[in-house]
Amino acid sequence: MARVDELGDGIYRISTTVALGEGAFQFNQFLIDDERPTLIHTGLFPMYEDVRKAVAEVLDPASLAYVVCPHFESDECGGMGRFVEEAPEAVLACSEAGALLNLTQWDYSGPVRGFRDGDTTDLGERKLRFIETPHVHHWDSMMVFEETTGSLFSSDLYIQWGDQPAIVRENLGSEMCLGYRESGIFAASEPVLRVVDRLEKLDPEWVHPMHGGSLPKEVVPSYTRALREEEFAFEGKIFGRMIPS
Ligand SMILES: [Fe+2]
Ligand SMILES: [Fe+2]
Question: pTM for the full model?
Answer without folding.
Answer: 0.97
